[in-house]
């Protein structure tokens, strides 16, 4: 008998033009820790982890970017959305449009961009509560 196939994690790869700056942002402002880096002094590929979320950061030449289009947007589920919002509010990571809000599709969420214009949305399902 073949074992059941089960997908259990996803590790998105976000493009960044400075992996060290990205590591600094995710570790010192968003509370992740470094999972790995391909080089400790000048990494081109690294990963950060917080709880069960792992995000990979990959260097891309900034000259090749069009920051206004085709930017990744991650949606990350959490249970204590209010606590996480308060934690990040103290870290000065929000833009002027970042609000904790309830949506028409049954979530409570907030969103902002990292320094490389990758979108991060954190949310909790409230449709069944």
Automatic annotation (TrEMBL):
<keyword id="KW-0560">Oxidoreductase</keyword>
<protein>
    <recommendedName>
        <fullName>Bleomycin resistance protein</fullName>
    </recommendedName>
</protein>
<dbReference type="InterPro" id="IPR037523">
    <property type="entry name" value="VOC_core"/>
</dbReference>
<keyword id="KW-0046">Antibiotic resistance</keyword>
<dbReference type="InterPro" id="IPR029068">
    <property type="entry name" value="Glyas_Bleomycin-R_OHBP_Dase"/>
</dbReference>
<dbReference type="GO" id="GO:0046677">
    <property type="term" value="P:response to antibiotic"/>
</dbReference>
<dbReference type="Pfam" id="PF19581">
    <property type="entry name" value="Glyoxalase_7"/>
</dbReference>
<dbReference type="GO" id="GO:0051213">
    <property type="term" value="F:dioxygenase activity"/>
</dbReference>
<comment type="similarity">
    <text>Belongs to the bleomycin resistance protein family.</text>
</comment>
<feature type="domain" description="VOC">
    <location>
        <begin position="6"/>
        <end position="125"/>
    </location>
</feature>
<keyword id="KW-0223">Dioxygenase</keyword>
<dbReference type="InterPro" id="IPR000335">
    <property type="entry name" value="Bleomycin-R"/>
</dbReference>
